[in-house]
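Q: I have 290 residues here and want to know how they pack in 3D. Can you give me a structure?
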Amino acid sequence: MTNFLRKLIANGFVKGEQRILDLQDLNRLVEIVNKLRSQQLKRDDKLPFLQLAGANEELDLFLEKILSNEYVKENLKTIVGENYLMMSPCARFSSPGDKGLELHQDAIGETGLLFLLSSQKKGSTVMLKSSHKFPGRISNYLSWNSNKLINLISLISDNVTGEKGEHYYWFHKTWHGRKSNADNVEEHISIFFPFFPQEANRTDVAEENAPYIKKTENQYLKSLMTEKKQANDLKPNIETPICMKIEKFNFKDILNINFHIFLLKLLFLEFLFFPIRVLRIFKKLRFNSK
């Protein structure tokens, strides 16, 4: 197993070891996305996300260039398996005044490629190292999980930092969120490429992709956003991809030092913010009694 994979499996995320785009292509990609963002804001649409597939023919070619890069393809094949399905990619903006997003986890098997379109020395995305090793999905039930506390939580989390053009691979089971942006000037921009293994059977994602498949003329993007059906008699021969293997708790993780540190953080914060949980329950009971 490579050091790259060891880091990904141990931490839940890892920075790519190679650059994908040259500087000229990168700057042009940023220019196109910024222009689309300006158009979005003129429509009074201030959502922090912008769907990219089919928005611009030149943009589609840059997306294809990222996704067809041999280094990227080989990593995705290793992590997500053969014939993976891509959810329509989007740009994510952390603008000045953005209130952030609390820690959360996404769907089973979901795996991401996060591409930085701006240099992020402090980072806007936060991930809690080794949290993907904890059984199930409980992040939404934590007493201390709130976008009001996300910047405080980021102090004990890992910030996704890097230069423009760098990228990360990560399991969406890893507890992750978005810091609030108190910067009065800088906007942090990233592209999110979500992927699902064939084993996840996400027909719903393929259906959600339909408008973007229709919108784009790029055949490579169309192929990635289209679900690949495989005969049932061949499925038993498919090796379970890494992104599905990590969904099951591994008792060997009990010996992992990073998992120990994660558990200590979890228990400390639950103890510290337990009164908040009690207060919420009390308010709910009081409201129901009226």
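Q: Anything worth noting?
A: The mean pLDDT is 92. The longest helix spans residues 23-42.
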